[in-house]
Amino acid sequence: MIMYTAGDVRVEERPDPKIIEPTDAIIRLTATCICGSDLWPYRGVEPADHTAMGHEYVGVVEAVGDDVRNVKVGDFVVGSFVISDNTCEICRSGYQSGCVHREFVAGTIGTQAEKARIPHADGTLVPTPGQPDEDLIPSLLAASDVLGTGWYGAVAAEAGPGRTVAVVGDGAVGLMAVLAAKQLGAERIIAMSRHPDRQELARFYGATDIVEERGDAGVARVKELTDGLGAHSVVEAVGTQESTMQAINSTRPGGRLGFVGVNYDVTIPGIDLFFAGIHVEGGPAPVRRFLPELIQLIWDRKIDPGRVFDLALPLDEAAQGYKVMDERRATKVLLTL
Amino acid sequence: MIMYTAGDVRVEERPDPKIIEPTDAIIRLTATCICGSDLWPYRGVEPADHTAMGHEYVGVVEAVGDDVRNVKVGDFVVGSFVISDNTCEICRSGYQSGCVHREFVAGTIGTQAEKARIPHADGTLVPTPGQPDEDLIPSLLAASDVLGTGWYGAVAAEAGPGRTVAVVGDGAVGLMAVLAAKQLGAERIIAMSRHPDRQELARFYGATDIVEERGDAGVARVKELTDGLGAHSVVEAVGTQESTMQAINSTRPGGRLGFVGVNYDVTIPGIDLFFAGIHVEGGPAPVRRFLPELIQLIWDRKIDPGRVFDLALPLDEAAQGYKVMDERRATKVLLTL
């Protein structure tokens, strides 16, 4: 899937990828999908010029370089949307998305494709315990980014027992943050959503309260629900100016904000952040840190993140997938191969 | 000490403060001082209109309201620059500067004075183990804000064993952050300073490296000193646009930034913070959390924060104190009574 320019996406034939570095693996994709962040170049916010699209992927290993030890031909693997060696000092501290060998899959590798070359395969890919049942594929695919990202948001916000978690954003990442908050044992989970179908999914994933208001009214409602204090933990999963300030102001003093919405054109007034007196952590999620745990939860059917996909199309019809996501007619589109 | 308007500060007679609430205490000040943040209204950045100045204080309790239990008449006490009840949920979580009864001493109470009424005395004041020796007064006074604030910056940045800490800012708070990082066991402490006298004091407090460069050049130098990764822990103790971005960019992915510089007119591009992938925590320091520990360290002569005062003047000459601090001819001015 190639984005020629904003709004112009086409499926075309490309040469098969080949092993270049001894740490590479070649995978044949089983499924891939379209991410909310793919809409940035689609809408012209990020540049696109014959860009290879896609950064979420699951599949079967077809070939490995001589130095690859942890995955072998035939393994079913899930990979992070950021390439990491998983051995450098930054990776070992749990921030694989800041790896010294970091490379973003989006734009360079492109996994809306039949095959992909994955650099640093040992540090990026995680094999599943065996060949997965068909119905687990969407959930495993979700782990590659949207689940891993929502999970990171909830971890960064320190969602956990005894804590009230507010999630700003009812897109796929926000819904996954609700799922994560539930798994992490949060006492109360406030989902901020005004779409009935997404509210329903938020409740399925563990939301205890729904707040429809946005901006200052949304902040006021969260405070009403938390004795006037604000939430202990807030996840920002939108990335607009309004949602960012709403998230900051919904967090109680000393509370924690995990922000995972890609926030182009957002400016945070320093003095507002200062007087909020909160913790803030965010950025591209270190999905690799969480993959082994997430894969196991899916394998054991303890979580069902795959329900976040509300449309499946063959890869050939990916252009239609972009269109319906851009028009918000689907939350997240799975692409079959 | 009253600030009539920007740049116009005068010492004048006022009626003695009286107990109003049963949780109040009246203290007779032993010493007070001028804070870098007092220069904001002095320079017209914050409004001033016959404002009672000063928020740092040590002294002897002269009277207490009926509900006060933890301090008694005759006690020598140190208080935080933020009034707190120390019993609400926010206080109990360690964020007393976000107390539901929070009140800033600056501007309302004003402790550049002979006496002051301190609300919520039990939650705000901490008695020393006895009457202090004269030479401990400056250090105890420093605990009231500048030491407590620098300490919070270092704690927020998780300064500790095995970690490299960079401190942006060589004012009193920055120097106290260096002291704190040393006490917290940091392996390496980089002080960013271009003033020889402050470099010397930074080394006295525990700095292992001095970086004179600022902005991007300062970031590059910190990276050179840290294998290209950036510091584990960074304390921002200035509050300008340049210093804020320098601090963000000096922090390694997954690292921690404690920001305690009051940052009017600073705007943080969300996308820069996103791709930095760091933790950020800051705001008005919850000094009350640290006071018991800091008082004990001072009492046992394990730390000597009082050296940060490089000029002492009688309260009557406080106007001169503002002038020399504004002109950067003194780091921090102690006012004697």
List the helices and strands and how they pair.
The structure is a homodimer of 337-residue chains.
Chain A: E1 2-5, E2 8-10, E3 25-34, H1 39-42, E4 51-52, E5 57-64, E6 76-79, E7 82-83, H2 89-92, E8 103-104, E9 115-118, H3 121-124, E10 125-127, H4 137-143, H5 146-156, E11 164-168, H6 172-183, E12 188-192, H7 196-205, E13 209-211, H8 215-224, E14 231-236, H9 241-250, E15 251-259, E16 267-269, H10 270-276, E17 279-282, H11 287-299, E18 311-314, H12 318-326, E19 333-336
Parallel strand pairs in A: 11-12, 11-14, 12-13, 14-15, 15-17, 18-19
Antiparallel strand pairs in A: 1-2, 1-4, 3-5, 3-9, 3-19, 5-6, 6-10, 7-8
Helix pairs in contact in A: 5-6, 5-11, 6-7, 8-9
Protein name (chains A, B): Putative zinc-binding alcohol dehydrogenase
Domain Enoyl reductase (ER) (chains A, B): 7-335
Keywords (chains A, B): Metal-binding, Oxidoreductase, Zinc
